[in-house]
Structures are given as C-alpha cells and as structure tokens.
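Rotation project, supervised by the postdoc (A.L.). Task for the rotation student: set up a whole-complex structure prediction and record inputs and outputs verbatim in this book. Inputs entered:
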Amino acid sequence: MTDTVPRPTLEAVAARAGVSRATVSRVVNGSDGVREPLAERVRRAVDELGYVPNQAARSLVTKRHDAIAVIVAEPETRVFADPFFARQLRGISKELTAHDNQLVLLLTEDRDDHARVGRYLAGGHVDGALVFSLHIDDPLPQLIQRAGLPTVYGGRPDWNGGQGGVAYVDSDNRGGARDAVRHLLGLGRERLAHITGALDQTAAVDRLDGFRDVMGDADPLLVAEGDFTPGGGERAMRLLLERCPSLDAVFAANDLMAAGALRVLREHGRRVPDDVAVVGFDDMLPVAEQTDPPLTTVRQDIEEMGRLMARRLLDDGAEPDGLILPTMLVRRASA
Amino acid sequence: MTDTVPRPTLEAVAARAGVSRATVSRVVNGSDGVREPLAERVRRAVDELGYVPNQAARSLVTKRHDAIAVIVAEPETRVFADPFFARQLRGISKELTAHDNQLVLLLTEDRDDHARVGRYLAGGHVDGALVFSLHIDDPLPQLIQRAGLPTVYGGRPDWNGGQGGVAYVDSDNRGGARDAVRHLLGLGRERLAHITGALDQTAAVDRLDGFRDVMGDADPLLVAEGDFTPGGGERAMRLLLERCPSLDAVFAANDLMAAGALRVLREHGRRVPDDVAVVGFDDMLPVAEQTDPPLTTVRQDIEEMGRLMARRLLDDGAEPDGLILPTMLVRRASA
DNA sequence: GCCACGGGCGAGAGCGCTCTCGGATCAACG
DNA sequence: CGTTGATCCGAGAGCGCTCTCGCCCGTGGC
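Outputs recorded:
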C-alpha cells in the first residue's frame, strides 16, 4: 500500500494557469461564469498536469460521495449458486457508472456483518443503498432505515404491508406464475401441481399466489413446498406423484427445482411433456437450456431490474414505492 | 440524496469528554499513550454521541482509503453465466472486511469503460486493485500498471512471460488436468480426447498443457477447440466422434462443455461411462451434479482463491509472484 | 459625464481529521 | 529539595477542496 507519486492539486493547476483556485474549481466542475479564454487556459493546465480531483477533499466539503452501497444479505449459498446476482450487479453497475457513481459492495452473512454494515452506512460513506434482503426475519432493513439513507430494495420486502413508503423493484412474480399456469391449461392439462419456493421469501409467496389466482384454492394436495434447490424439487415431485399419480402438469417456482422434478419424473417413467408438462421460472440459462427436455419457463429481465434499482435511487425526486417489471413466458420443449 | 442528520465530529466528542481533539483521535485510532481513566471517558463520549469517524476527512490527511477496487473485465456474458464470479467475490469480501477494507466493484465491458477505470485508479480513490483480466489482448493491465497501484491478478496473466514481478493467484489448472487424464487412464481407457476451452484464456491453455503432459503430443485429431460454452462442447464432441469414432474417454476443459458433450454422446447412442468416460473441470455445482450421469470433475476452491487474492494485496510485504492453489478430482458417475 | 448595476474573478474561511511539536506533570535520583 | 527524563496531553498547522463574499471592471441609463 505504498503511496503513489504526489498528484497535482488544484493549487498547482491554478498556478500554472495563472488564476485562482476558485476559478479552476469552477471550470473543473463545469459551472459557468468563467469566460472562455480563461476557461480554456485552465483546461490546458489540467491535462498538462494530469490533474484529477481528490475525491476525499471534495467529499469533505460537499458531503456527497458519488458512491452507492449494494448490500447482499446472503447467509446461504443459494444466491451464489445461480447467476442472478451477477446479472443484477451488472445492471446496477451500468447505471451507476453512467452517473459517475461508484459501487461499494457489502456482502453479509451473519449478525456480526449486519452490525458492521449498520456502522458503515451510519458512517456516511455512501449516498444511498441498494439492498437485497432475501429473508423474512432479516434485521437489516431496520438497521438501514435507522441510518437514514435513501434505499431501494431488490424484490418486494415482506414487511411494511407490501407497499407504501418503501422503494423497491421486483419482477411480476404473480403475473408470471399466472401466465405459466394458463399456458399449461391452454395445453389441455387438467391436473396441475405446483412446487413452491422457500416460503420465507416473497418471490415464492407471490408465485404461489399467482398459481392460486388461476387455479382457485384447488386441491391443496397438489401444492408441495420446495426450497428453490434441485434436491428440494426432487423431494416435492416425489411427494406430489405419491399423492396424486394422475397429475399431468407441474409448475415449479424456479428452474432449479424444475430440473429436479424432471429427473424424478423420468425416474418414474413419465415422459415430459407427453405425460407430464413442466414449466419453471427464472429462465436461468445454464440450467433451463440444458435440461432434458429444455425447460419452458418464465423469464425475468434481471439486468434491467438492477438498472432500474439504481436509477430510482439516483433519481431523488421519485416517490418511494414499488415498481414491478413484466415477465415473459419462454417456450421450450418441456411444456 | 438528501443528507442525513449532522453527525457528531471529533470536536464534539472532545468537548463532551473534556479533552482535546488529539486525545480523542488517539483513543479512536487505538494508539497508546493515553491513560486509562481518560481513555475510558473518551470511549463513553464516543458511544454516547454515536460518533463515527468521517472517512473523507481521514483519507484527506492519511492518503489511505481502506478501500480496494475489484475490476472485472467481462465483455462477454460468460462469467455471468456461472457462479464463479460470485464465489470469488465472496472470498474477497470476507478477507477485506476482516481487515476493515471496503470493496469497490468496477465492471467493464468496452474500451470506454477501460478509460474510465484508468482514470478512477489514477484518481487515487483506492489503495489497491484486484483484477480479473480474462482475455489475452486486454489493455487493462497496462492502464493499471500506469496508475501505479498494488495489484493482484485472478488467474495467470498471459503477458509477462508467465511469472516474475506480477502477483497473481490461480488454480493448478495444469495439475488438475493431469489428474483428470490419469484418472481416465487408470480406468483403462485408451483413446482419450480433449475438448479445450477458449484458447485466448490462460486457463484453457494450461488445461490443454496438462492433457499433453500426460498424453504426449498424441493424436492432434483427438483435441478439439471449444469455447467454454455448452454449445461449443457439443460442436467439439461431434467433431471428435467424426474424426475418431473409437474414442473411449473425453476430458472437457469445463463442466459446461462436458454437459454439452454428454448430450451429443447420448444422441449418438454412446453410453456414459460404459462406452465413453467423461471428465469435466470446475465442479460448477448447479451443472456438475445435475447432468445425467453426474459429472466426474476437477474441483477448485474458488472462494479460497478470492480470499488469497485479497490477502496478498493487503499483505504489503509479500513478493509479487504467482500463487497456485491445488485442485481436487471429484468422482461422480461419468468416469 | 456621473452613478447604479451586474457579471467575472480572487481572497479566505472552513469541512473533519491526523500528526508533529512543545509544554506540563510526575516519578525518581543525586 | 532541585533536576532530569519520561510520559501524557493540548495547540495548531495543514491535507485539497468548495463556496460565500466582496472587489473590480465594464456597461448602460439619465
């Protein structure tokens, strides 16, 4: 961590251009009120010296940091097992850099981390926070609210009654689920089962609600709780086959579980989609395209979701409320 | 981006504790030379006021930032299609937070981004950089070197003759490949083929070299170039079957391509592992465990790799050279 | 031809911290 | 009891920047 060559200061640029610091500052920050010939001289001095403003000094007085914290609360490894996170980050990153903001990444796993994050946010190092709070009992939101920073959540938060006063961006999980179910019905299927995700996450709840929107409160035996993992999908599928051998369609709350379900179906000699049609959710690429048969699934635009989160955060005027992005059914061979 | 409540300053703490700013600073920064009763009074004042040091002011004078840039050069979507990146990030994050450093994430896609990153690094916002430079003609390393920041690369850089003067952390790609090949030979296989990765990446080159270490310069017809994608794996597999229908084993340079190869083999009626044994690389979980049959593959400890990169960067004394992490063959059903 | 006015620029204070340096205090020693 | 030396603490300068304030000069109106 040895320090670099001493970098030129505003002072130095001012001296070279034969003006005052104030003038250089004005030019550098693009404020008007500096006549052209002078401004030009300053600009030349700036790049002759290779001047780059010292962000620390600037923040000290402006109290702005041009930096945003992205907080990922992930005690489990699930998020890391799929590429969601990376896509979202990319969307966020694009939007932030377009507005000259930096992205400070905070990954948390346990309570200690939460305290640390709380301190960091309270420390006023960043201008706002993007939060992926994935589980229902997560204490993080409170910590963040206490820090008093502008915040946008990724995914509908479970607290707060679902809306009002809290900014979030989410996919239309419920609508996507409805599309999936309607597609199965449109295929002439009659006994539809649903494998839910981990129900402590709002995405899972919303997808289940979508299923019920169309199916009514149908046979509760046709709904089995999974956990978003392939193993969970397998277990749920086995259970469903046992309970209701005549089922002819399955809607799984994500592709990973759908993949698990496919294996169990094959194991039981059911042909997909002939005997049983299967629809997933996410369009998680390395999985959805590689299963046998490839999955029909509900795609969400993850990168766009990230981008919009960042945009809402930077756009100070926006009302804090929910923003729901559309989903799209992608037809492949499984249904 | 409305600003928060004015936070207490050193001054305020000093006043409350009835000491000078200097003393508070000493206590806060854990320097000795402050007698216990006084120190205690200061500490009480600190948490009564909820004082958190202003990092900007601190950086201004210390020229340290306690922040590290993580630069991911990724013009393609490949990295985002697998969870590598996230795991590595997690390892890095753990190590950095253990040393009270922040992680500033810079994702780059094109030339413009490179210029921006160069400016950012030159701007002296961070104390060092971790770089994932994935392709051979990437201009990023030069930009970074010019910024004069301590840097550690993820994966062996292709330039610089492979070692000497540049710090990097990599998996033992070559050794892992040798293990994979020896395992196949140990199974009694005789006609081994290799599907390479994209050869503009050192990981692909090293794995190919490992294959050749064991096989000699064997039949060049038994080596087909892939690109690390499932589609590439399929194409390569088809080519290999055409060239040499009698092959009885395939080593693919990653699991994604191995999955593609499995599909083509099944399509051609070859049973795995009975007719053809298949070994992958990476142990990329959602894929390796879910293929049919599950993949035998070479595992690398990605998270540890990230952790070590961070550790080397923070550990100023370390010699800048390469650090190679061991790999491990994971046996599943495919070989 | 004088005064009021406004726009362009510089002087200077101050953001919150660290760190050097010198003054005060106290124990110990002659 | 005076002196030395070590130790603890405070005063103050200064990091590089922004931003307010006021001076100066040029212009236009009466």
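Student's summary: The mean pLDDT of chain A is 89.
Supervisor addendum: Chain A touches chain B through 67 residues (CB under 8 Å).
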